[in-house]
From TrEMBL:
This is Flavin reductase family protein. Keywords: Oxidoreductase. One of its GO terms (molecular function) is riboflavin reductase (NADPH) activity. Signal peptide: none annotated. It holds the Pfam family Flavin_Reduct. The lineage of its organism: Bacteria, Pseudomonadati, Pseudomonadota, Alphaproteobacteria, Hyphomicrobiales. SMART domains: Flavin_Reduct.
Length: 191
């Protein structure tokens, strides 16, 4: 249930300046994928991804209402989250561009539960079923229940976005040390 009450005064700042301010928050990069009932594969780059809950396992991302495929995304019953590795900036850029054949030369793998298209080489891929959608102004906030995930490249570094550019973690940072353990490739399904 969405119980938002907006009593704040109207913004007096420039929307571009606000966007630039938000760009100072470093994020990882994901590509969200799904399949329409007609069988068309959809994909979009999203840095507006985060965890919501461990029990039940929930994640969210935000979809712009002005996106060409917005009506299809709004009707999605399931979606996959592909967390990109630092060597996948070209893939991120491809899925961020509107009106292009995003899937050209991309041979997806398929998720074990929902059969959703997963991007090869992603750090982690999660299959999610739609849990809730919320109004988010010029975006819709899409919450999904994770039904499976695969850690596919535990030793790779994440693709990072800051200040409107892709960035890299310091090469001295060891991904295994950051995780606190030597993580084998995992596949997990929600019970």
């Amino acid at each position: 249930m969405n119980s938002t009450i907006d009593t704040a005064p109207k913004a007096t700042f420039d929307s571009r300046a606000f966007r630039d301010a938000l760009g100072t928050f470093t994020t990882g990069v994901t590509v969200i994928t799904t399949v329409t009932p007609e069988g068309e594969k959809l994909g979009t780059t999203a840095s507006s991804f985060n965890s919501v809950s461990l029990d039940p396992p929930l994640v969210l991302f935000s979809m712009a209402r002005n996106a060409k495929a917005f009506p299809a995304w709004q009707q999605a019953r399931s979606f996959a989250v592909n967390i990109l590795a630092e060597d996948q900036d070209e893939l991120s850029t491809r899925f961020a561009r509107p009106l292009t054949d995003k899937w050209s030369d991309v041979i997806p793998e398929h998720g074990p539960v929902e059969g959703l298209p997963l991007l090869p080489g992603a750090l982690v891929s999660m299959e999610c079923t739609s849990y809730a959608n919320y109004d988010g102004g010029d975006h819709i906030i899409m919450v999904g229940r994770v039904v499976s995930f695969m850690r596919r490249r535990p030793h790779a570094r994440p693709l990072v976005f800051f200040g409107s550019r892709y960035r890299a973690l310091d090469k001295r940072d060891d991904p295994e040390a950051m995780l606190g353990y030597n993580a084998p490739r995992e596949t997990a399904r929600s019970q």
